Amino acid sequence: MKNVNGFLDIKKTDRTYLPIAERVLNFDEFVKSLPKDDLQQQAIRCMDCGTPYCHVSCPLHNLIPDWNSLISENDYKNALIQLHSTNNFPEFTGRICPAPCEAGCTLNIDNNPVSIKTIECAIIDYAFEKNWIKPQIPEIKTDKKIAIIGSGPAGMAAAQQLVRMGHSVVLYEKNKKAGGLLRYGIPDFKLDKKIIDRRLEQMTQEGLILKTGLNVGVDVSIQDLQQKCDAILLTGGCEIPKDLKISGRDSSDIYFAMNYLSQQNKINSSENLLDEFLITAKDKNVIVIGGGDTGSDCIGTAVRQGAKKITQLEIMPKPPIQVDKFTNWPKWEHKFRTSSSQEEGVERIFSTTTAEFINENNKLTAIKTYKVDDKFHKIDDSDKTIDADIVFLAMGFVAPIYDESLQQLDIKTDKRGNIKTDKKYQTNIAKIFSAGDMKNGQSLVVTAINDGRLSATAINNFLKESA
Ligand SMILES: Cc1cc2nc3c(=O)[nH]c(=O)nc-3n(C[C@H](O)[C@H](O)[C@H](O)COP(=O)(O)OP(=O)(O)OC[C@H]3O[C@@H](n4cnc5c(N)ncnc54)[C@H](O)[C@@H]3O)c2cc1C
Ligand code: SF4
Known about the structure:
Elements: H1 6-9, E1 16-17, H2 20-23, E2 31-32, H3 36-44, H4 53-57, H5 64-72, H6 76-84, H7 90-96, H8 100-104, H9 116-129, E3 145-149, H10 153-164, E4 168-173, H11 181-184, H12 193-206, E5 209-212, H13 222-228, E6 231-234, E7 240-241, E8 254-256, H14 257-268, E9 285-289, H15 293-305, E10 309-313, H16 325-328, H17 340-343, E11 347-349, E12 352-360, E13 363-371, E14 384-387, E15 390-393, E16 397-399, H18 404-409, E17 432-434, H19 437-440, H20 445-465
Parallel strand pairs: 3-4, 3-6, 4-5, 6-17, 8-15, 9-10, 9-15, 10-11
Antiparallel strand pairs: 1-2, 7-16, 12-13, 13-14
Helix pairs in contact: 3-5, 3-9, 5-6, 5-9, 6-9, 7-9, 10-20, 14-15
Bound molecules: flavin-adenine dinucleotide and iron/sulfur cluster.
């Protein structure tokens, strides 16, 4: 490290956002990168701890102090090698990871962690800018054939790893384009879809065969794949949304968040909506039920569509503003956070549940709510009516869709309905593996990438053992 006292001498800075009034005019990314000199200074702040909790806290176990040290010397080429050695897609995590690494950073004890995610993103963005990202074509090819079903971050990571191990890999996707929730869930203002396209281009140049618009189990027979392939990896995600079955739910003005978000993402990339009904928040009183990432994405989208007023309801109590570092660090902090979308204009209401959707002449007009205590019991006299023209349900996801492909396989699931595997990612059916949200339930992009990488290694070992 260039200056061992860097954490004392240099003030923390981080990326900033375009002003709200400017960024809500379109769906473009709005995070402003740090200049190279500032990045170098921020990397110098890393204390290169003997036990690097940032590295432990990152689900991919990224070699954070190593690339910080290289960036402190402005050595982007070697930093890139270190970064790619654990993470296939730092351009995704550098944009949308919640950064548990920064919660684990020793400097977070003082609320000033190293700007790890910013440095990660800068390394890979610079590498693409300099045209350093080239296809890594395997020198030796095996005769093994693998089908991967589902092209989200788990399927993409597994595919890239297995192709580079020399196997023939076909990645199937039922949607028109690959990327899973990166493409159809996460809005463009958080992740520009060109970022996914350029990585897919590298992957196909490496030898990946990508087949989109094919629903395995419907358009492609799973039995056929079982016969033709040496291994199959199921990475179909966790797509069944949680519903709110209360009075008035049959209103046509209540939508699952994903139906709304995927539609706007398709519009942004000029994808044909076919016969989809256009869902818009323009000039409407919008209610978002659910306080997580998906809820925030609905808010950011509704703001950009010109919503009249947005209210977000969360059943959980408002988290504390600060946490006790001595009992919490280096764990992820459950504290009050405001996402960039929430900053753009929303009223947030906590400890509140929805009791009824009110419809007049087949049109949603309001919702009835009440406050709950920390055991979710109703608090007396807390009933409220809120004007509502449209509602987005963003309360999380229950399980994978147990569709034709899984029914035909008779695959075992856990209590929640996620695919059950052993520690080697193997399901109850010979040659069939599973990874990502389909196996773990709804999680994060970084965990999906990690699972994709680990399942690829497990499949490779299985193929070697059965050769
Ligand atoms: C709105 C939203 C916002 C999010 N924001 C963030 C965020 O900011 N940061 C973060 O870290 N995480 C975020 N997440 C979570 C993250 O996106 C997921 O955890 C991650 O994408 C899971 O990856 P996956 O590859 O397991 O599955 P997915 O990304 O869900 O991909 C599964 C793919 O499989 C395809 N598929 C399913 N069945 C078949 C079949 N039979 N044939 C062919 N294809 C099939 C699906 O169409 C889909 O494309 C968000 C999730 C949502 C819903
Ligand atoms: S992937 Fe996420 S947790 Fe890991 S270093 Fe990057 S931002 Fe931190």
